[in-house]
Write a structure and sequence with these properties.
Layout (H helix, E strand, L loop, with lengths): L8 E4 L20 E7 L3 H14 L4 E6 L8 H10 L2 E9 L3 H12 L8 E7 L9 H8 L3 H12 L18
Parallel strand pairs: 2-3, 2-4, 4-5
Antiparallel strand pairs: 1-3
Helix pairs in contact: 1-5
């Protein structure tokens, strides 16, 4: 299957590697679906993290997409991910101001944040020097390995926990 220049693709749907759109018990609602949009070498770690998240919580569905190109952005793919998921995480082996920022700028101009129903995070290389090490050791230090991706996904799904809201009548002011 050949892919158009400038087009990304969904690599993994909730429940596994299939891209045929089969429905399963994972991520039945948009609130329980997370999308990871990867650019470059972090795709494999994104797939590992998606499997780990779903193994830990069978109600969560994780989609992994390969952005493939920074420019032009595949706006159709990005819109599809936003329409179907409540969380979008971009990950790249680049610094601040790269792919994630371009995606966020597009989403902002497209109105995706207007209703407050989309949580977005970008994982990039931090602006700091690293000691010499293997490539994997540097990914670990940078915080962009599968463990860090999994932790971020799990953190962003914590909103599902019900936090009690205090009624102002119940709050007593201490003098």
């Amino acid at each position: 299957m050949s892919l158009e220049i400038g087009k990304g693709r969904i690599i993994r749907r909730p429940g596994g590697m299939g891209v045929n759109g089969d429905k399963n018990s994972r991520g039945r609602t948009r609130e329980d679906r997370i999308a990871i949009l990867s650019l470059g070498t972090r795709l494999h770690d994104s797939l590992i993290a998606a499997n780990e998240v779903e193994d830990a919580d069978p109600s969560i569905g994780v989609t992994v997409a390969d952005g493939r190109f920074m420019k032009p952005l595949d706006t159709e793919l990005i819109r599809q991910l936003v329409d179907e998921h409540s969380v979008l995480i971009t990950i790249e082996e680049g610094s601040i101001g790269g792919f994630g920022d371009h995606v966020m700028h597009f989403l902002s101009d497209d109105g995706a944040f207007d209703d407050g129903n989309l949580r977005f995070r970008s994982m990039v290389l931090p602006d700091e020097l690293f000691e010499a090490g293997t490539q994997q050791e540097q990914y670990d230090m940078a915080g962009i390995n599968h463990e860090h991706i999994r932790e971020l996904v799990q953190k962003l799904t914590l909103k599902r926990l019900k936090v009690p809201v205090l009624d102002m009548a119940e709050v007593q002011v201490k003098e």
